[in-house]
TrEMBL record, chains A, B:
It holds the Pfam family FAD_binding_2. SUPFAM superfamilies: FAD/NAD(P)-binding domain, Succinate dehydrogenase/fumarate reductase flavoprotein, catalytic domain. Gene3D superfamilies: FAD/NAD(P)-binding domain, Succinate dehydrogenase/fumarate reductase flavoprotein, catalytic domain. GO terms for biological process: steroid metabolic process. The lineage of its organism: Bacteria, Pseudomonadati, Pseudomonadota, Betaproteobacteria, Burkholderiales. Its EC number is 1.3.99.33. The gene is urdA. Its cofactor is FAD. This is Urocanate reductase. The keyword Coiled coil does not apply. Keywords: FAD, Flavoprotein, Oxidoreductase. Residues 24-458 form the FAD-dependent oxidoreductase 2 FAD-binding domain. GO terms for molecular function: oxidoreductase activity.
Length: 491, 491
């Protein structure tokens, strides 16, 4: 058979001569979203086949810190142990702000209401949480501790509309990389439930009828092309498209300013393309997490970030992804983090941030950087003047991070966009209902098709509001919803 | 027959019982792109049916100024009469910069090479040009003159890489609104060529086979649904999607900051949806022309534009659409245009820009605006200091527009995003080849399908580089290419 298949062209069900595989639910991709979908579909009594293009499970979830954004309903054990009460309304308002100008209210509401029970579900699967809190500003705990401030909760303008609470929950795992632990645990559950997992299995196309109802998929493994029938539905959990640089160029070309995509080779947009091939609408395709993870050392948060004209443009205590989002909007590649000798600490090596200039006065630094006289110095003077009073009238950085930068020598750290570490991944994807159903551009469900994780456009959909743990929160929680609904679509 | 049709779902050719209409080429939309496609297809010997949803021709092209971006090959008669020599290489480099981070090099090259002959073609159709030049900064000539500076040619950074030349060509028509004249002329040609034009004809869906090859379309008029066969191809020239606010929210939500979409009700995204229904890739869907057309009076260009923190962020002599693009990226809705008594002239009423504050000193203005002391004043002082030397080291505004703002009283004009006039239209659309063929996400042509005008993502595809006349240049020129290729697809 020499048919050419494409993720962008559904194979017509009328052309299928025989189904080689049959199940109630077919899942594409064995990252966190796919695992959770498989667990819930299987627990609901559905037969499930899970296809993974790679030779092992994990996807990009396994490369992550394993952090999940959780809270509400008074708080998780870790939140409560640390003395925080997290109201559902505050979580909801934060999620709405984080979602940006087209936040998905239905998803934000459902997640806010059920986040605590989602935490309990994760614990029931075996995910260990130490219920300890690490205060301060950091990307991930270096220890096996649990709870951190992982977003912009304490930062303007978020802090004004939603009572701040730390919500980043990291599994008990020493050091970065708890995502692998999380995936091992979820994968063990998938195995326990006897889900039929097929590795090295690349999905080539969906199988659909003329009305774009999805009936199954075409998958290739061991050199053989097989037709798999989904009695209830196909769930696409195949990641985003950050590794498909052509696709990035066509939808989010500003990301090409950086050479640090985060993902596996599987994040090539296939999941999104499959969904679009049957009329699924891909939305917010220009949005991304794009970060300069410059803390810890948290002392650097007391510095100020300026563009090549010496202007500040964002409160530096915002989440590093929000800062990165604004950095990529600046004219010019030169970005500096300014600190004095009291606030300076060497950035982590990963960041590729060296010292661009140093001097005994800010005038010297300004000169060394070749900036127009009076620009950077005025920015620093204005900042210092108000910081001395515990204020930042221009960007509303919180008082805790305000310290006049007055103790020389002074340093400008070189965060240029074309050299420093700006990790990024895409947030655009298929529009879905909270139950995971993929929607057309008229927001009507595509029968038989679901999506979750970064194949979907979920809770996180705006670079200016992303917070650590949101992508896994979205992938695990809405992966579960998709699995449940696909198992009993009529329910 | 009670079949439900959708622009997002192709009707299967195998289900067509009879063709009610047949032609070599079917064109959807009678704006400039559709008219030019019809003219060329018809001249090449093809039979053409042109469907227009409205009761008359013109589309959004007829609402425009009729300005077309033209030049290269030494220059048009108007350019040469005014003493400008416009080299093809300069036009090409300008188009590449204007196209932004994913400029379409093939289209830019073809257009640069053939722009002068396109001018001659327009003249041959009967479009009158007075071949006179109006210097200075303006949106459209108020007179019946022809040539204006219609982009950022003389502004940084464009002026550094492409020798500046004015390229906005307006038909001989007194006052704004030359687009109606342009359309009347093109429509007369369409009529002369006996193209079969069907008004009040709404295209409901494309007709395609299982491989997404396009065979025709389904159209509704006079209460009757008809099947129209395209022996060679369908050309989608149905405008953009700015009037579909749901679609805008899902793809370009920053535009929702303004309530001034430019278009006809037809700019509802139907054309793009039709193309996507058969696998056409829609790209750069977040990009838009979004402008604050604050000049003329050109004296205002000598003012400076600041955000609500009193910071400048762009050279004010850039094209108003480039400035608007950057305005919509600012944090906060408050935007001010600062002028002194020598540079002040009342903005046009259309702009909805009043005086936010005035004072005998910039300190007073700063205070009146409730800005942090020393911010706006420092911005003005820095600007004035360098302007006095004919320099703008921060934003590289050209010397001609640099004048210290030192003669009181001083005025801050209120350009707030949520109130002032920010006209906008979408630039994202179907990816196409220079010959108009619609491309899949793998950049393979969708057989039998073409697009032009704002249904396609053409030369203009980046808000930061748009220049007046580019959309009509793209629509007319690439509409022609689509018509020619569809007439003789094998040629």
């Amino acid at each position: 058979m020499s048919i050419e298949f494409s993720p962008s062209l559904p194979f017509r069900v009328s052309q299928v001569k025989q189904w080689d595989i049959e199940a109630d639910v077919l899942i594409v991709g064995f990252g966190a979203a796919g695992a959770c979908a498989a667990i819930e579909a299987s627990r609901a009594g559905a037969s499930v086949v899970l296809f993974e293009a790679a030779s092992g499970n994990g996807g990009t979830s396994a490369l992550s810190g394993g952090e999940i954004y959780l809270g509400g309903n008074g708080g998780t054990p870790a939140q409560r142990a640390a003395g925080f009460t997290d109201e559902t309304g505050d979580l909801f308002r934060y999620l709405m702000m984080a979602g940006g100008p087209d936040a998905d209210e239905a998803k934000a509401r459902l997640y806010a209401e059920e986040s605590l029970s989602h935490y309990e579900w994760l614990v029931a699967q075996g995910v260990p949480y130490k219920n300890t809190f690490v205060p301060g500003k950091l990307v991930e705990p270096a220890t096996d501790d649990c709870l951190i401030w992982s977003g912009s909760e304490q930062a303007w303008p978020f802090s004004e509309q939603a009572k701040p609470c730390p919500r980043g929950h990291t599994p008990q795992w020493t050091g970065w990389g708890g995502g692998r632990l999380l995936m091992d645990i979820l994968a063990a559950r998938v195995e326990e439930l006897k889900v039929d997992v097929r590795y090295d299995s690349r999905v080539l196309a969906l199988v659909a009828d003329d009305a774009n109802r999805v009936h199954g998929l075409v998958v290739r493994s061991d050199g053989v092309t097989r037709f798999a029938r989904a009695r209830n539905g196909v769930i696409l959990c195949a990641g985003g498209f950050v590794m498909n640089r052509d696709m990035v160029r066509k939808h989010a070309p500003h990301l090409m300013r950086s050479d640090d995509p985060i993902g596996t080779p599987g994040d090539d947009g296939t999941g999104i393309r499959l969904g679009m091939s049957v009329g699924g609408a891909a939305i917010h395709m220009n949005e991304a997490f794009s970060s300069l993870p410059f803390y810890a050392p948290e002392s650097l948060v007391k510095g100020i970030i300026v563009n090549e004209r010496g202007q500040r443009f964002i409160n530096e205590d915002a989440y590093h992804g929000r800062i990165g989002h604004h950095i990529l909007q600046q004219l010019g590649d030169r970005i500096y983090l300014l600190v004095d000798s009291e606030t300076y600490e060497p950035p982590i090596e990963l960041l590729r941030v060296g010292i661009a200039a140093a001097g005994d006065t800010w005038e010297e630094v300004e000169q060394d950087l070749g900036m127009t006289a009076g620009t950077l110095t005025h920015t620093v003077e204005t900042y210092n003047h108000h910081a001395a009073q515990g204020q930042d009238p221009l960007f509303h950085k919180a008082a805790a991070w305000l310290k006049p930068l007055t103790t020389g020598p002074f340093v400008a750290l070189d965060c240029r966009i074309d050299y420093a570490f700006y990790p990024h991944f895409t947030l655009g994807g298929l529009d879905t209902l909270p139950n995971g159903q993929v929607l057309t551009d008229q927001r009507e469900p595509v029968p038989g098709l679901y999506a979750a994780g970064r194949t979907a456009c979920g809770l996180p959909r705006w670079g200016g509001g992303y917070s650590s743990g949101m992508s896994l929160a979205d992938a695990t929680f809405f992966g579960r919803q998709a699995g449940k609904h696909a198992a009993t679509p009529g329910a």
